[in-house]
Amino acid sequence: MVSTLSRKYWERKSLIEKRQNRLSAYYIQVYNNNVIDKFIKDYLNDENAPRPTQAMLYGDLYVLNKPEVYKQYNRIINSKYTSDSALQNMILRNKADARLNTIVETELKRINKNLDYTEKVLGTHELNLKEYQKIAQREKAIANRKNIMERSVKDVDFIRSKFGINIDSNVFTYRDLDITAEALNRQTQMGSSFDEYDAINQEARLNGLPDVYTEKEWIWTNEGQTTRHSSNDGQTVGFYDYFQCIHDVTGDVEPLMYPCDPNGSFENTWICYCQFRAF
Ligand SMILES: [Zn+2]
Fold first, then answer.
1. Which one of 80, 108, 121, 123 is at 20 to 30 Å from 72 when CA atoms are compared?
2. Is 85 exposed, middle or buried (0-12, 13-18, 19+ CB in 10 A)?
3. Alpha-carbon distance values, 273 to 18, 26, 102, 218, 223 (Å)
4. 3-class DSSP state for residue 241?
5. How far is ligand 1, taken at its centre, from the CA of residue 173, in Å?
C-alpha cells in the first residue's frame, strides 16, 4: 500500500493533470462546435455546400493537439538523463509523432460522424437557422450541438416524438468530443511517463549500468466517478512486466503495461485516472 505522503503527492499531481486535460479537451470541443455551426449555416444557404475538407480538419486538429503531446515528450527529451543520446531523442520524437497521429485520427473520425449526423438531420428536418444561432450564442461555447439542433427543428414529427430527432441511431450518432480528447490526453500522459522511465533505463544500459527502474506500482487516485480499479491500488510488478489489471465490476483481469495503456480494452483504459510510479 502507498504511504500517506505518496498518496497526497499523486492525488495532487493527478488533479493538476486533470485540469490540463480539461483545458485541451475544451479547445477540441469548441473546435468541433465551430465546425458543426459553420456546416449548418453553409448547408442551409446551399444544399450542395461542401463539407470541410479532411485535410483542413486534420491540419486544425494537428495544431490543436500538438502542444499537449509535445510538451509531454519534450520533457523527456530535455531531461538530463537522456540529453546526450541522439538516437533516443529520435525514438522519442517518433513516439510523439505516432501518438499525435493516433489522437488526431480518433478525433477526426468523431467529427466526421458528427458531420454525418448533422447532414442527415438537415436533409430530413426543417431547421430554423436563426433559432439555432440564437440558442448557440446564448449557451456556452462547449454546449452540445445535437441538443441545439433538436431545439431548432420545426417538424411536427419531432414534436410528436419522445426521442428527439428521428435519426437511425445505429448509423448516425452525435457525440461530444471533450470526453474523447480527455481520454486521449490521459493515454499520452501515462504513455510518456512510461517512456520517460524506460529512456532512463536505456541510458543506464548504454553506460554499462544496471536499470534504474526495476519495479512499478499501480496507484488508484480516487479521481473521477469510477472505482473500477480500486482493488489494483498498490499492485507491484517488474518494470517491463504487465500489471494484471482487475476490473472491480466485472472481475475480468487484463494485462496492461500501465494505466490507460492504449493497447488495452476500452472498459479498462478509457477515462481512467489511475497512475503508476516506478522505483
Ligand atoms: Zn483506473
1. 108
2. middle
3. 8, 18, 20, 11, 6
4. coil
5. 27
27 Cα–ligand 1 center, Å? 25
Q: Is residue 268 within a helix (H) or strand (E), and if so which, with residue range?
A: helix 266-269
Please give the distance of CA 233 from its chain centroid, rounded to a whole number.
23
Give residues with Cβ within 8 angstroms of 263, minimum separation 6: 256, 257
268 Cα: distance to centroid of ligand 1 (angstroms): 7
Q: What is the DSSP string of 185-234?
A: HHHHHHHHHHHHHHHHHHHHHHTT---S--EEEEE----TT--TTGGGTT
Residue 7 CB neighbour total at 10 angstroms: 16
Strand partners, 246: 253
- CA 237 – ligand 1 centroid, Å: 17
Q: How far does the centroid of ligand 1 lie from the alpha carbon of residue 269, in Å?
A: 7
Q: From the CA of 147, how far away is ligand 1's center (Å)?
A: 30
| pLDDT per residue of the chain (279 residues) written in tens, 0 to 9 | 445 556 677 677 777 777 777 888 899 999 999 999 999 999 999 988 889 999 999 999 999 999 989 988 888 888 776 666 777 788 889 999 999 999 999 999 999 999 999 999 999 889 999 999 999 999 989 999 999 999 998 866 666 666 667 777 777 889 999 889 988 988 999 999 999 999 899 888 988 999 999 999 999 987 766 679 999 999 999 999 999 999 999 999 999 999 999 999 999 998 898 999 999
Contact 108, 180 (CB under 8 A): no
Cell of 7: 498518496
Ligand 1 centroid from CA 275, angstroms = 8
Q: Are 126 and 178 in contact (CB under 8 A)?
A: no
